[in-house]
Amino acid sequence: LLTLRLEAFDDGLRINGSSLYMAAGARADAGVTAKGAVAVDQQRLLDILTKLPQSKTVTCSLTEEGKFRLKSGSSRYDIAMMSADDFPKQPKPSSEALLELPSTLLTEMIDATYMAMLQDDQRAHLSGILFTWDEKQAAMTATDGMRLNRIVKKFSAKSSGKVFVPFRAVLTIRKFCESLEQVQDVSIATSGSYLHVWIKTAGFACKL
């Protein structure tokens, strides 16, 4: 059962999701009358939200029967909830971003290379993209053993580095950048066995 952790803080809402390979989170401004956190069934919540009019305000509360309630206009839905304490702890970057680059540049480089990568957990050394950068340029390289795609773009970073991005993270980064309504700087960092990718209001971590 996939769950989402919802947390109401001072003036906003945090939402976190997690799987075996990836953890993701986002936050948004919201009117908060009481702080707290719950975990709810992800699919059930999404099914409800897609039915509600986007122009209407959604109000969230807890019922006396221990349910998580959503109200929007005349619509009302109750969802079974779980303790937020049982939700997996989210990985965090151990340091500041290794680099920041425009979302359009990141998408362009992925689009030029990802078709050559394997999407196969059995051959992890080919299932992804090698991303390298230095003070003058950034490069991405992918190969499935038969073909090789590589792109090099002029780019100025404060230091040089490299990371092998697993195919699940590559596809998620591409979708993440495409979902942005405007060009934004995307931050990238690592911590232990995780790769972290984020903007100011949302981001995710993927196992390396």
General description of the model:
With 208 residues, this protein is an alpha+beta fold. It has helices spanning 42-51, 103-113, 167-178; strands at 3-9, 12-18, 22-29, 36-41, 59-62, 67-72, 75-83, 99-102, 128-133, 137-143, 148-154, 161-166, 185-191, 194-198, 202-207. The radius of gyration is 20 Å and the shape is elongated. The chain starts with a strand and ends with a strand.
Distance between the termini: 24 Å
Order the strands across the largest sheet as they lie in space: 5-6-7-4-1-2-3-15-14-13-8
Q: Could you say which structural class the secondary elements and strand pairing correspond to?
A: alpha+beta
**Radius of gyration, in angstroms, nearest whole number:** 20 Å
Mean pLDDT level: 91
Q: Percent of residues in beta strands?
A: over 45%
Task: Give me the strand/helix succession.
Answer: EEEEHEEEEHEEEEHEEE
Helix content bin: 10-25%
Say how many strands there are: 15
Q: Can you tell me the overall shape?
A: elongated
Number of helices: 3
Runs in which pLDDT lies below 50 for 5 or more consecutive residues are none
**Main beta sheet strand tally, sense and closure:** 11 strands, antiparallel
